[in-house]
Write a structure and sequence with these properties.
Elements lengths: L1 H18 L10 H24 L4 H10 L9 E4 L12 E2 L11 E4 L4 E8 L3 E11 L7 E7 L11 E3 L3 E3 L17 E3 L4 E4 L13 E3 L2 E11 L2 E9 L7 H6 L10 E5 L4 E3 L6 E2 L18 E4 L8 E8 L3 E11 L7 E7 L11 E3 L2 E8 L10 E3 L2 E9 L5 H25 L11 H4 L3 H23 L5 H18 L8 H6 L4 H11 L5 E9 L11 H14 L16 E6 L3 H19 L2 E6 L6 H6 L6 E6 L2 H6 L13 H4 L12 E2 L2 E2 L2 E2 L6 E5 H7 L7 H13 L4 E2 L11 H10 L17 H15 L10 H6 L5 E4 L1 H10 L7 E4 L4 E2 L5 E2 L7 E5 L6 H11 L2 H15 L10 H5 L5 H11 L11 H18 L3 H22 L3 E2 L2 E2 L8 H8 L2 H4 L1
Parallel strand pairs: 26-27, 26-28, 33-34
Antiparallel strand pairs: 1-13, 2-3, 3-13, 4-12, 5-10, 5-11, 5-13, 6-7, 6-12, 8-9, 14-25, 15-18, 16-17, 17-25, 18-24, 19-22, 19-23, 19-25, 20-21, 20-24, 28-38, 29-30, 31-38, 32-34, 32-35, 36-37, 39-40
Helix pairs in contact: 1-17, 2-16, 5-7, 5-10, 7-8, 8-10, 12-23, 18-19, 19-26, 26-27
Length: about 1000
């Protein structure tokens, strides 16, 4: 208790220091002047710290170099062989005979090792760095490294350099599913030697990154972050300059323009640098090929080809060398209505300046876009006889200045809001007036300045788009309007911070959404025409042809069922309902047709589940499927209590089969010793932390709750905090956020016989008290609508979150890639020094219905579906085809170990899964969940005594326990008829037995 009081006093003192006394509308006195001086000193400390947290962005550093007169180096190139790397370990050098055709010894770059080389340059200036590399990694996780120049990161972007892997379809012709629809083939990596100049990983820079090297000797270090590859020669050279079109075409003055017309279907004969750029089944009479009934993969790209830097390469055979026009038949239907851009490569190189930033304006109809200059005159490219490679690369660099400006303004607004909170003590009392302009006199100018800067960007984006019909422009204009409105009444800003930085419709939120949408560059391509004449097919078919196609499609819709639920399933076919999107169902059906049915002879049919909530009704109406997968973990228990699902424990091989899952995952799927579903996917709660920020502030990553409390004063001193999942819930706090505290403090939710609740026992009381203290004493956030955004913007650089946050950060936060990490959930230190980290982690489940045609066949399917081999293949395939956002968090532990995730992250997640404890189900569990939430609200908001709040809730809970247990036959007239057995982890672990027994 004494240590807790001391920590609390330190925390209160640290909070008072940066914020000062709240300033109401009154004349400043001497004390307030001292507080203001203290605030100014603290402001300087905060600003200095923030600047030192991470390096400046590349565009800022480049501008600084230009102002200092540092120019591009000219006429220089130095080549360094792997054998000349500094302190190279002989074990890391691969001999020429094993270099995959490089012809010289190469460096094996992996396992977070570094390679260092020296270069002597004749002049101080800006240089580019290039690398010959051969990717060994064949996983979707990119190969990444970081670059140090003379021991320092020159700018933030040098912390993450990506080395792309080339991908292609495993087969050229598309297979079809059981309905005759074409399916996306497996993707395979194409390892080959490639040369790349170090580039911004987010590809917002139009050119490769430049590095400032001083005259004389310089040391460059490339450190492995993840992935593995062979590194050949590295080079330091002058920045590359593209020729103009006139200079380019002058080299081919003797070449003639051909009369050929070569038509290439975009979905055929291509490679790409992202495995998940994929063909699409586009329905319409204007695309080729098409069918009114079947789905053909007849176009390429769309939303899967929207990330800047993604590149597609088509191999096109040319019968006659010469000059050609290049035309793309495209549909550009970006959701926000803006223009997208592409860079054109011919045989691996951009031929001239005008082949960069090619505009594809928004259009809801198919159209032909020919490579042309600003006047609309076609630009010709030279192609050799035979095979040529035509490539398009998504390019968001024209929007870089707007993205950078929005980033800067968003950061400035957060700092401004922090200053306001320091002056007001964080209060937002609408009945209280503030005289903020007396202490920050330039508030109107600050707000107007941001509005002016955003107005310029709105005009710039409008010029890029060629019109004002864009949601991006509308969002910018709305942000401008809000800022100008706020600037008119500066003293009301403290009470209107929700309009500036904190609300769901605030300026900060508008700009945050823009940062996600502006870089997206989606483009759908049907055909590529390489031609010498202007006569190419129209992009759209005629009216009557289009009408006839739609008529045929309308009538075919009555006979096409595809993956819809139907009543005509064969008696010898197992029907499986899937509670997932169509692409998951298609892949699962294809895998089962290819692997499961040939091996077992059991036919299966998958259907899209209309609504998992209707499974109870379907069971009552005897129209249920044989198996359901992808269902929420709460549903099997509800169905089991109604006798609707099969107890899997009846199968002879069930117990040894459970060994591949976390024991705690079964607790919510059990009634007594009966198990009514298998865990299919599994969530995880871990600590996410910004490594760059914590390192800069010298804050350690906490391992337990005592250490979390210890770092709070330092975080809060700089306007930051720690996120707990409690803040992610609204008024109702679910078991997912409250139960971990109960479990970690060795508390229980139910009595041993299941007749009453156990939350009034001492251990549970301690947990509830601590859970409340986090907000009442330690000032952790009460409510955070979106931890992901706050984590990105550094206001919450550390906190506990789930698998969903992991996916978001991996797939949609490229600006902080390489700067964040994960650690186990903080726990409670035990007497022996160990840390109890118990946390929930329910995902989805798979179950068999009592009305199944054949229990044994259904069980065989479940075993196959949740086997290590099937889950590993499904996880790899779905992510390879559809991108990092389609991460599959399988509950099969061995399969999870094989997922294409960083090894360090998998180790942390697997360690946390050892402490997975899902909340056991009980007929009245909902009442315990609700009352624990009520207790927290009473303590935190009403200041009620913990014991009193718990005692009141226990009465209500136990009354509901009696009612529900009588309903299900466990009690009668208030007396226990039979105990309600609460499942335990020890009970589940006993099924698999010891290691020796299992063998």
């Amino acid at each position: 208790m004494r240590s807790k009081i001391i920590v609390s006093l330190v925390l209160v003192f640290s909070l008072l220091m940066p914020y000062g006394a709240p300033l109401a509308q009154e004349e400043p006195n001497q004390t307030q002047t001292k507080d203001q001086a203290t605030d100014q000193t603290m402001d300087q400390a905060i600003n200095q710290t923030v600047e030192n947290v991470v390096e400046e962005r590349y565009h800022t550093v480049l501008e600084m170099w230009e102002k200092e007169g540092v120019n591009d180096a000219s006429n220089f190139e130095a080549l360094i062989a792997p054998s000349d790397f500094i302190d190279v370990d002989e074990d890391d050098l691969v001999p020429a005979g094993e270099s995959n055709g490089y012809g010289d010894s190469v460096f094996y770059w992996h396992n977070q090792e570094s390679l260092t080389y020296e270069v002597t340059v004749p002049n101080d200036g800006l240089y580019e760095l290039s690398f010959d590399y051969y990717p060994i990694s064949k996983e979707i996780v990119p190969i990444e490294g970081s670059i140090l120049v003379n021991g320092e990161y020159p700018y933030y972007e040098s912390r993450r350099i990506v080395f792309p892997v080339k991908w292609k379809n495993a087969q050229e012709d598309y297979d079809v599913d059981r309905f005759g629809n074409e399916i996306i083939p497996k993707q395979v990596a194409v390892p080959e030697w490639t040369t790349i100049s170090a580039e911004d990983a987010s590809h917002l820079q139009a050119e490769p990154l430049k590095f400032h090297l001083e005259k004389g000797k310089n040391e460059i270090t490339l450190t492995n972050l993840r992935g593995e590859m062979l590194v050949g020669n590295v080079s330091v050279h002058s920045p590359t300059q593209l020729p103009t079109y006139n200079d380019y075409i002058s080299n081919f003055s003797n070449e003639s323009k051909t009369d050929a017309l070569i038509t290439h279907e975009a979905e055929k004969g291509y490679t790409k640098n992202s495995s998940y750029i994929r063909p699409e089944a586009t329905i319409g009479s204007s695309v080729s090929p098409n069918d009114p009934k079947k789905l053909y993969l007849n176009t390429l790209g769309g939303e899967s080809w929207a990330e800047s830097g993604q590149r597609v390469n088509w191999t096109i055979d040319v019968e006659e060398a010469g000059l050609y026009q290049v035309t793309f038949k495209i549909l550009q239907n970006k959701a926000t209505g803006g223009t997208v851009f592409r860079n054109l490569y011919v045989n691996g190189e951009i031929p001239f300046e005008e082949a960069t930033h090619i505009r594809f304006e928004h259009s809801k109809k198919w159209k032909n876009v020919t490579l042309a200059n600003e006047d609309g005159d076609a630009l010709l490219v030279y192609l050799d006889k035979g095979e040529n490679e035509i490539s398009l690369q998504a390019d968001a660099s024209p929007l870089a200045r707007t993205i950078n400006e929005i980033n800067d303004i968003n950061r400035e607004m957060q700092e401004f809001a922090l200053t306001i909170k320091k002056l007001t003590g964080g209060e937002a009392d609408q009945a209280r007036e503030w005289n903020i302009s007396e202490y920050i006199p330039d508030v109107p100018e600050t707000l107007t300045g941001w509005a002016d800067r955003l107005q310029k960007e709105s005009e710039y984006v409008e010029k890029l788009n060629g019109s004002t019909d864009s949601q991006d422009i509308a969002s910018l204009n709305l942000a401008v309007q809000k800022l100008r409105t706020l600037s008119k009444e500066p003293d009301k800003v403290p009470n209107r911070l929700t309009e500036l930085t904190e609300g769901s419709s605030s300026v900060s939120q508008l700009l945050g959404n823009l940062l996600l949408e502006l870089p997206k560059q989606p483009l759908l391509i049907d055909r590529i025409y390489v031609h010498g004449t202007d006569d190419i097919p129209d992009a759209k078919v005629g009216f009557w042809k289009g009408l006839w196609f739609n008529v045929k499609r309308f009538f075919s819709s009555f006979t096409s069922n595809n993956y819809a639920v139907s009543n005509d399933v064969d008696e010898d076919t197992i029907e499986i309902w899937v509670n997932r999107p169509r692409q998951y169902v298609e892949l699962t059906q294809n895998m089962a047709d290819r692997l499961f049915t040939p091996e077992t002879g059991i036919k299966v049919k998958f259907s899209l589940m209309p609504d998992e909530g209707k499974l109870i009704l379907a069971s009552a109406a005897n129209s249920q499927p044989d198996v359901a997968i992808g269902v929420s973990s709460w549903l099997p228990y509800e169905l089991a209590m109604r006798g609707a699902v099969v107890d899997l424990h009846q199968f002879d091989d069930f117990e040894p089969y459970t060994k591949q899952f976390s024991p705690g995952a079964f607790l919510s799927l059990m009634v007594g010793d009966s198990v009514y579903a298998l865990p299919e996917t599994q969530d995880f709660f871990v600590q996410f932390y910004r490594r760059d920020i914590l390192d800069s502030l010298n804050i350690p990553v906490p391992d337990n709750w005592d250490e979390v409390v210890a770092i709070l004063p330092e975080l809060q001193r700089f306007g930051m905090n720690y996120f707990s999942p409690l803040a992610g819930d609204a008024a109702f706090k679910s078991f997912q956020t409250t139960a971990p505290y109960i479990f970690q403090f060795d508390g229980e939710l139910y009595s041993e016989n299941g007749m009453t609740t156990a939350i009034s026992e001492e251990s549970a009381l301690k947990a509830i008290q601590f859970m409340s203290d986090l907000n009442t004493i330690y000032s952790m956030p009460l409510q955070v609508p979106n931890f992901y955004n706050h984590f990105r913007y550094s206001t919450l650089p550390i906190g506990i979150s789930s698998f969903n946050t992991y996916v978001q950060l991996t797939a949609a936060a490229p600006e902080i890639a390489g700067s964040w990490d994960i650690a186990p959930y903080p726990g409670v230190v035990q007497e022996d020094g160990s840390v109890e980290r118990w946390a929930t982690g329910a995902g989805t489940s798979a179950m068999i219905f009592e009305g199944t045609k054949d229990k044994e066949k259904a069980w065989e399917f479940l075993k196959w579906w949740m086997s290590t081999e099937t889950q590993a293949e499904f996880a790899s395939t779905i992510q390879t085809l559809y991108g990092p956002a389609y991460m599959w968090n399988t509950a099969n532990i061995e399969a999870f170990k094989m997922l294409p995730l960083p090894e360090k992250h998998k180790e942390v997640i697997l360690e946390q899964w050892e402490y997975l404890m899902e909340v056991p189900k009980h007929p009245a569990a909902y009442m315990v969940e609700r009352e624990i939430s009520n207790i927290w609200n009473k303590i935190v908001f009403d200041g009620e005594n913990t014991r009193a709040a718990v005692d009141d809730s226990v009465i209500a809970i136990n009354r509901e326990f009696q009612r529900k247990l009588e309903e299900f036959g466990y009690m009668k007239n208030g007396k226990m008829v039979k105990p309600y057995q609460i499942p335990t982890i020890e009970q589940v672990e006993s099924w698999a037995g010891d290691e020796d027994e299992a063998k």
